[in-house]
Amino acid sequence: MSANGGEGVRLDKWLWAARFFKTRRLATEAIKGGKVEVDGQRAKPAREVHAGQTVHVTKGAYAFEVVVEGVSGQRGPASQAQALYTETAESVERREAIRQERRAAEAAIPRVDHRPDRRDRRELARFKRGRG
């Protein structure tokens, strides 16, 4: 792991080493799909990332905006991966807001607490036929 700005590593390798993606292939597909930007510009998988650059990663409903603190081409423990970047405060706030919205939306949807038994199935069938 290097913290100086002189050395660089491929963007797909860095995303994999920083544990944003489980495999380099997934990282490469996300980059090619326009889900990753470096310093506000679309990037290619082979672009070199240096310390101090800003990387914007979109994964599903969540968006991460991180500042590169170190570079590494090898995947290590999660503690090392977290040392490779720092997430901006705005990014954390946006993700938390999205998480709260999703939690509220899930709470509004009723969930079945058990599998229907014979009686429940018969009542449902009657209801669907219009005799309920």
H/E series: EHHEEEEEHEHH
Structural class: alpha+beta
Q: Outline, from the CA principal axes?
A: elongated
Mean pLDDT: 91
The level-1 CATH class: Alpha Beta
* Share of helix, binned: 40-55%
CATH superfamily: RNA-binding S4 domain
- Radius of gyration equals 22 Å
Number of helices: 5
The proportion of residues in beta strands is 15-25%
Please identify, by name, the CATH architecture: Roll
- For the record, the count of structural domains works out to 1
Describe the structure.
- It contains 5 helices and 7 strands.
- Mean pLDDT is 91; it is low at 1-5.
- Helices cover 40% and strands 19% of the residues.
- The termini are far apart.
- The strands form 2 sheets. The chain has a 5-stranded antiparallel β-sheet.
- 20% of the residues are buried.
- By secondary structure, the chain is α+β, with helices and mostly antiparallel strands.
- Strand 2 and strand 3 (41-42) form a beta hairpin.
- The protein has helices at 11-17, 24-32, 78-82, 89-108, 118-129; strands at residues 9-10, 36-38, 41-42, 48-49, 54-59, 62-68, 85-87.
- The protein has one domain (9-110): RNA-binding S4 domain (Structural Genomics Hypothetical 15.5 Kd Protein In mrcA-pckA Intergenic Region, Chain A), CATH 3.10.290.
- The protein is elongated and about 75 Å long.
